[in-house]
């Protein structure tokens, strides 16, 4: 899982990552999930993982004029904001992901939504509100057991719990 956090709004973008990704994969993920929706960042704070210190990623950031701030070895608190978001998302996932962990990708986007819809302690408002000026609207999910969707009511109730 790759997590990107906006320093101003605290908005999180969580991206499932399967297997080993290359620096080129990271660039494509960055373009698809960050740049295309939010534009180029002025700077990126990251750990010293091999992807973030690779020649390709370094040259890409230089070309795009993105400042890179790498955390100090053995001091992950340099990127404490992302570390905290990772902990929160992992807590959400632990509650809902199946024993076999084959449905993590389903719950990741809902966990991201729940995080972005919760009040942040430093901004005193949700990241969603900071970005859009309003909280997201959603109706409670109510499905009766007799309806055709009744078989899915357990899953829908789980979704409702995450969203709330």
Topology, please?
Elements: E1 2-5, E2 12-15, H1 23-38, E3 43-46, H2 55-63, E4 67-70, H3 80-96, H4 104-117, H5 127-132, H6 153-163
Parallel strand pairs: 3-4
Antiparallel strand pairs: 1-2
Keywords: RNA-binding
Protein name: Integrase catalytic domain-containing protein
Domain Integrase catalytic: 1-135
Description:
The chain contains 6 helices and 4 strands. The chain is mostly helical and 164 residues long. It has one domain: 2-Layer Sandwich (Nucleotidyltransferase, domain 5). The chain has a two-stranded antiparallel sheet with strand order 1-2. A two-stranded parallel ribbon has the order 3-4. Helix 3 (80-96) packs across helix 4 (104-117). The chain is globular. The two termini are 23 Å apart. The model has no long low-confidence stretch (mean pLDDT 83).
Distance between the termini: 23 Å
Going by CATH, the architecture would be 2-Layer Sandwich
- Overall mean pLDDT: 83
CATH class: Alpha Beta
Helix- and strand-based class? mainly alpha
User: H/E element string?
Assistant: EEHEHEHHHH
Number of helices: 6
In CATH, the topology is named Nucleotidyltransferase, domain 5
Unreliable stretches, pLDDT < 50, 5 or more residues? none
CATH superfamily: Ribonuclease H-like superfamily/Ribonuclease H
Instruction: Tally the beta strands.
Output: 4
Count of domains: 1
Strand order of the largest sheet: 1-2
The biggest beta sheet reads: 2 strands, antiparallel
The proportion of residues in beta strands is 5-15%
Helical fraction = 40-55%
Overall spatial form: globular
Radius of gyration: 18 Å
């Amino acid at each position: 899982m790759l997590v990107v956090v906006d320093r101003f709004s605290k908005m999180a973008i969580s991206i499932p990552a399967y297997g080993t990704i290359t620096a080129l994969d990271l660039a494509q993920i960055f373009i698809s999930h960050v740049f295309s929706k939010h534009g180029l960042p002025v700077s990126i704070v990251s750990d010293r993982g091999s992807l973030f210190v690779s020649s390709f990623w370094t040259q890409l950031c230089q070309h795009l004029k993105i400042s890179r701030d790498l955390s100090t070895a053995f001091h992950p608190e340099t990127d404490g904001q992302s570390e905290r978001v990772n902990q929160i998302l992992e807590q959400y996932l632990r509650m809902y992901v199946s024993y076999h962990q084959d449905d993590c990708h389903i719950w990741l986007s809902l966990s991201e939504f729940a995080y972005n819809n919760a009040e942040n302690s430093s901004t005193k408002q949700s990241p969603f509100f900071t970005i859009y000026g309003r909280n997201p609207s959603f109706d409670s999910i109510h499905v009766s057991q007799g309806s055709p969707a009744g078989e899915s009511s357990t899953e829908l109730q789980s979704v409702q719990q995450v969203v709330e």
